[in-house]
Design goal:
The chain has 491 residues and is an alpha/beta fold. It has 13 helices and 19 strands. The protein is globular and about 65 Å long.
Length: 491
């Protein structure tokens, strides 16, 4: 039990991917760390939110690979997927099936592929010459990492325990923060305790610690004038990336269409046509079903978290009834879990010393001159529910350390999807393994600042990059020979 007066070298608020990376990196290097998580388990969206898969992408080394190695030791805890059926593949449908007419599968499918290994998951970007045949290329080259959420939580808790330096508090929320002149001093928790720390990392996803500490924040779609982005609208729009509620279904031997709960219609009352599904296979044969999306961004903002979640649960039952009724293979599954957290892709973003923009992402590593790149990524600009396509990037890009430094703050970093990103950049950079590597950089930066006696914004970027390379973090593309040999030898 944390006492009211207890103090730490580092307090990490939020036990999602970024928070895990930050707390584990700092604790491994000897700092006295506390990790505060409001949920009942670690992982955030990646566990409680049902996103029980790491999508393919550059930069997924370091701590994510450490976790993967632990998961592999547990039967049916983790796998590598390949693309299965997809309604955009030739022969499946003539185009995006707005009405699902003539579709043999209601979206995309990712199947566990024993022939693939972790190193196969470390690329997303599509060669320019294949952009017109994206799904054919993806079928052979996109490989992600599905995992069991309970096993993930257990493995990460064991890793924290092994450091001997990290206290993990579950079921505890941040309710207030004391900050003055760019220094965060104390935080008030939902259990009535107050903690103090020399340094702080916000891993809440929505930037709650930054917001309570008085940091400047942004929400919605930034205007073209905000960051000079070609893909931005002329005026700011109060709209966020569409959220999704994910559910899990379990295999059974007998076919059945499960009855709808009372009061839930069979028709899609909130839209004209059914939504598509991203269906990921678990290693044990269950299915993880992600509606794309469950609710549009403006409706989510209007309803608020609790009402939005309740409405999304109703839609889940309708969607599952549609799948079982129209695609008989789903009759051999039963509803297992509707995850307790709504998957919100975007909320508040914090204004940092550097804001990653569309230009940084499109330009790629070979055009970036930032000396402080501490993570790389290559996910598409995936603006769910905001109009337009989902353009792939042609090269990996880098995320600078300054994107983790809230403007004007000396002992606070942010390592989550609410970091220093424009709304367009956030649509690409927000994935779990990328967030975990932001956290790994943040934890190492806190260690360096303590060693050098400097504030967090003044951490030497070259020293930080050297530390990350020591921990097998990918900062270049393609992989260096040394890092590739390490992954191959240990996967």
């Amino acid at each position: 039990m944390i006492q009211t007066s207890e103090s730490f070298d580092l307090a990490v608020i939020g036990g999602g991917s970024g928070g895990i990376g930050a707390a584990l990196a700092a604790a491994r290097r000897g700092l006295n760390v506390v990790l505060i998580e409001r949920g009942h388990m670690l992982g955030g969206t990646a566990t409680i939110g049902g996103v029980n898969v790491w999508e393919m992408g550059a930069g997924g080394t370091g701590i994510p690979f450490d976790i993967y190695q632990r998961l592999k030791q547990i039967p049916d805890a983790v796998g590598i997927y390949s693309n299965g059926r997809h309604f955009c593949l030739p022969g499946a449908h003539g185009g995006w099936p707005h009405d699902m007419t003539g579709v043999s599968f209601p979206g995309g499918e990712n199947v566990v592929d024993p022939g693939r290994q972790y190193i196969d998951t470390l690329r997303r970007h599509v060669p320019e010459e294949f952009l017109n045949d994206k799904w054919l290329w993806a079928k052979e080259n996109w490989h992600g990492v599905p995992f069991e959420p309970d096993a993930f939580h257990s493995v990460v808790m064991d890793m924290f325990s092994e450091t001997g330096n990290c206290a993990v508090r579950l079921g505890t929320a941040l309710i207030g923060a004391d900050a003055q002149d760019g220094i965060v001093r104390k935080a008030t928790l939902s259990d009535g305790h107050r903690i103090s720390a020399t340094s702080w990392v916000d891993g809440t996803g929505c930037g709650a610690l930054c917001r309570m500490s008085g940091c400047e924040q942004l929400q919605g779609i930034d205007s073209k004038g905000a960051f000079g982005e070609d893909g931005a609208p002329d005026e700011h729009i109060e709209r966020v990336n569409a959220p999704t509620l994910i559910f899990r279904v379990a295999k059974t031997d007998t076919p059945e269409v499960e009855p709808l709960p009372p009061g839930i219609p069979a028709d899609f009352w909130w839209r004209d046509t059914p939504t598509s599904s991203c269906v990921n296979h678990y290693p044990n044969g269950d299915r993880n079903i992600n509606m794309l999306p469950t609710m549009e961004g403006p409706e989510f903002l209007a309803l608020g978290w609790e009402k939005a979640y309740a409405e999304c649960r109703r839609r889940i039952h309708c969607h599952w009834h549609f799948l079982q009724t129209n695609f008989p293979e789903f009759q051999y599954f039963r509803m297992h879990t509707i995850f307790p957290m709504l998957g919100v892709r975007e909320s508040w973003r914090t204004v940092c010393d550097k804001m990653l923009t569309e230009g940084d992402i499109v330009g790629g590593l070979h055009q970036q001159t930032d000396p402080d790149i501490i993570a790389i990524a290559d996910h598409s600009l995936d603006r769910h529910g905001q109009g337009g396509a989902c353009p792939e990037v042609l090269f990996p890009y880098g995320i600078p350390y300054r994107c983790l430094v809230p403007r004007g703050y000396r002992n606070l970093l942010i390592a989550c999807r609410g970091a220093g990103f424009s709304s367009i950049a956030a649509s690409s950079a927000r994935l779990s393994r990328t967030m975990m590597q932001l956290g790994q950089a943040a934890g190492n930066a806190v260690v360096l600042a303590r060693e050098l006696g400097c504030p967090l914004p003044a951490v030497n970027p070259q020293r930080l990059r050297e530390r990350l390379c020591e921990e097998h973090v990918q900062l270049e593309f393609p992989l260096t020979d040394q890092l590739q040999a390490y992954i191959v030898a240990n996967q």
